[in-house]
Design brief:
The protein has about 450 residues and is of the alpha/beta class. Helix content is about 40%, strand content about 15%.
């Protein structure tokens, strides 16, 4: 029987998008059930199985009650699988990561979890998870983009069943631009909405001049959460990749990316970028956006946009735009991916039962579509589209063509991301130029990659 490795792993917080959604219409095809979950009648296992499901707020909280929707999912699952008891425990984004660390170290990890690649792939690399290859049929594999499958696998082993996705982009307060007569400065007349760095600067300048009570753009560097927003922002402003295509080393430390970071630093001084960025978190910036005090926010997505429907403190219409690039070329958008994993707690019956729960959540003819909509995200399956009657979701579907290689799959990623924000802070407080900060980050990150590769060979 396989047991967990002891000792608290160095698991790092990753901003997971809290996925709440206002009710929307749907015209999507119903997801088809995979081979792992063909049962449509109660199973006849001789002995009842009890499993524990730990879940971050991956679904909309019904009636303000966190976990209420998940309980409905479990009740529906039990109608078809009465011999499987599912114990639900909801995690918070603040305390959840440490609770998982302690559970893993004490061999009390849950059986199944809904999470994101940042943690799941790290667990997979540490041999803590049960492979899900038997659940990924050819139909599923051919219907999920390579960028998303990369975030679900370690080597040739699938450790996360991909369910919902969304491109990380800019969130824009469209109402502000309408009020100042500058809507024409946004690339909304272009089907792909791509725009250049110069066009972006003009839009920010217009906000500064015509809406002095609104901060043109956001930035943050206080904690590890939301790092995907800042790295994609700088990567696109500098037309640079974050890693080389083979993930062998960092590639963002280019002269152009350094100049982009220098522009952000100067932008704070010029009041084009929020002041005190070095001490702000991604959540702080999103709060400013919700208050109508920020025109353009980073780290946005259809999922966060859905959550914000009920959290806005000011009335405004928010829209999605891709990150600008130097020459208006196609941007590189990092894909958010949510999915489920099974811990290998040494009990084959619990592993099998956990897989049945995953298959039900992802592929049940009725609940599969419901669950997708409840996340506020897009389907990880290319064939399942049109879930929402909303032009911003229609654009988000199109923006999936800009998906780039996800940094989360790099060897040593859990350590690499700890070096990112400290270097941004050094630049923001004037202790390093943009290029110096990115070079320092690259040096440390490359050492982490080398170390991780060496450990993997042991």
């Amino acid at each position: 029987m396989r047991t967990f490795k002891k000792g608290i792993m160095s698991l790092l917080g990753i901003t997971l998008i809290s996925t709440q959604l206002a009710a929307c219409g749907s015209t999507a095809e119903t997801p088809k059930s995979s081979e792992a979950g063909k049962e449509t009648t109660p199973s006849n296992t001789a002995k009842p199985v009890e499993i524990t499901w730990w879940n971050f707020p991956s679904f909309q909280a019904l009636d303000g009650e966190v976990g209420k929707y998940e309980k409905q999912v479990i009740a529906a699952f039990n109608q078809k699988n009465p011999d499987i008891k599912v114990n639900l425990e909801m995690l918070t984004f603040e305390a959840g990561p440490e609770k998982l660390n302690v559970a893993i170290a004490s061999n009390t990890a849950p059986d199944v979890i809904y999470d994101a690649p940042g943690r799941i792939l790290d667990w997979g690399k540490k041999d803590l998870l049960a492979p899900l290859n038997d659940m990924i049929t050819d139909e599923v594999k051919n219907d999920v983009s390579p960028a998303l499958m990369k975030q679900s696998m370690v080597g040739d082993q699938v450790y996360m069943y991909p369910i919902n996705t969304a491109p990380f982009m800019l969130g824009v307060n469209k109402t502000v631009f309408e009020k100042i007569g500058a809507l024409n400065l946004l690339p909304l007349d272009r089907p792909d909405r791509t725009w250049s760095f110069d066009e972006y600067k003009k839009a920010l300048q217009a906000v500064k001049e015509k809406a002095p009570d609104v901060i043109p753009s956001g930035f943050f560097a206080k904690s590890q959460a939301g790092d995907q927003g800042t790295r994609a922002y700088i990567s696109n402003l500098g037309n640079a990749s974050f890693f080389t295509d083979d993930y062998s080393k960092v590639a963002i430390n280019t002269d152009k990316a350094g100049a982009a970071l220098d522009w952000i630093v100067q932008g704070v001084k010029d009041k084009l970028v929020v002041g005190g960025s070095e001490s702000l978190t991604g959540g702080d910036v999103n709060d400013l956006f919700l208050q109508g005090k920020l025109a353009i926010s980073l780290n946005y997505s259809p999922v966060l946009r859905a959550q914000n429907v009920t959290l806005k403190k000011a009335e405004f219409e928010d829209i999605l735009l891709p990150f600008p690039t130097i020459d208006g070329a196609k941007p590189r958008l990092e894909p958010y991916l949510g999915g489920m994993a099974v811990f290998n707690n040494g009990d084959d019956a619990k592993i099998a039962a956990s897989k049945k729960l995953i298959d039900f959540i992802a592929n049940d003819p009725e609940w599969g579509k419901k669950n997708l909509i409840q996340t506020g995200g897009l389907s990880a399956r290319n064939s399942i589209t049109g879930l929402y009657n909303d032009p911003e979701y229609t654009y988000a579907e199109k923006a999936r063509e800009f998906y780039t290689n996800p940094p989360t799959v790099a060897d040593g990623y859990a350590e690499i991301r700890t070096y990112w924000f400290p270097e941004l802070q050094r630049a923001l407080i004037g202790k390093a130029t943009g290029k110096e900060a990115l070079d320092s980050f690259a040096e440390k990150a490359n050492e982490a990659i080398t170390k991780a590769k060496a450990e993997a060979k042991k």
